[in-house]
């Protein structure tokens, strides 16, 4: 074990102990009233929300950007820009409406609108995909630990999973708030070490500095080097993920007021900017100093450890640990909330809050095991797990969430069909692509295929089951007709530009855009016109079109 490895182990153990012990002390000092476990008693101030969101998104972005910038240069900055856009859209569009409905989870939204069966299916899919996100980010710290200590990657991920269980099971969202604040402080220290590394070796100027090396590799300074299709996919994925960002919802819903939640999100967007920029520069510097490594998340720790003293390298690597925990902690907790609170209430509608908390703690244990199993199955490529998670969760839940917000005519059977169709289509396309993380069949990302099938299933089954009629002439019908025209133009353009779209990997995005436009057109042009013929389980039109508000959100 290297000297940097010894320092990393010592600092990581000390930091982890503080997260576990300090978190429990802080939780005991605060009253845990109704909803305390799931939304922190709705007591978070804007800075706590900001630290929660910064640890969640900026920490994960830093890891992704460092890896991407090693491969694609400064074009990786668009990943951070796309994620920042997502944060701002959540703040602008969703915080206040979701707070008015006392929303906790995406699966809760689906269950309130479409019933217990939809809630159960959505909870299982959502709960099992969150450990995939956790593994994807944790691989970064595991890679660093592997470099300096020779511990195996699966063992490092397993250790992370156990630590997450230790501090999450005690205080729930309050523990998340405390740990995210500490993580942001640790990430700040990592930022300072990163600046030190850049200035020390190779430095900015001089014949062997970063500027000179970059001049010899100009492709690393091209903003489109990652490829137009990949950059568009980042923006498309993050924007479409706005109504599905469950972990972010849970954090912002823990604020004292909707305004505090919004302010916290705005501050998080600002706090993330320097971290995004540092991630780009560190990744590019590592690529210029140590080019050609197959695994960037191994090459970068080697670069860091070779420049600064062992104790400083240890601080940097524990910063990566904080990034991993900042993403994985909320993901594990939010996934457990879906499995424990939402699946538990679907199976046992009479469950008390105490029982739901117990279910969630059991789910945390289960997801810890799942995360370790995922780590044993595949640890060499974090992007693979992200693709799998995006595809399965977004492919299953997009249409039901949009319908819950915007389409009273949508039926329960349509929601179930949409979830199963999206899940199956996305998974099938990923399988047909050989489960490759970047090279997909016809250049179509599986998440586009899954979400398209998801929306199509919702539209077709609802129209087939419900008695509906066109809305009366007026502004809404005009907008609907416009949406039909736009959808037609997208289909025609897609057919005409097919070779070009395939070349740049934009077929799936155009297909999804056309399907979203069709969905918008149907929502605008249809209204209830009588009793449902088969609204899923013999429910009445009122049950189908009016979301249930009888179940209080915790």
TrEMBL record:
Protein topology in the membrane: Multi-pass membrane protein
Broad class of where this protein is predominantly found: membrane
Pfam families xrefs: SSF
Transmembrane segments: 6-27, 47-65, 77-95, 120-145, 151-170, 182-200, 220-244, 265-288, 308-328, 359-377, 383-407, 414-432, 447-468, 480-498, 504-525
Subcellular location: Membrane
Keywords: Membrane, Transmembrane, Transmembrane helix, Transport
Stretches the record annotates as Disordered: 531-554
Entry keyword Nuclease: no
PANTHER family linked to this entry: SODIUM-SOLUTE SYMPORTER-RELATED, SODIUM/PROLINE SYMPORTER-RELATED
Family: Belongs to the sodium:solute symporter (SSF) (TC 2.A.21) family.
The protein's name in its UniProt record: Sodium/panthothenate symporter
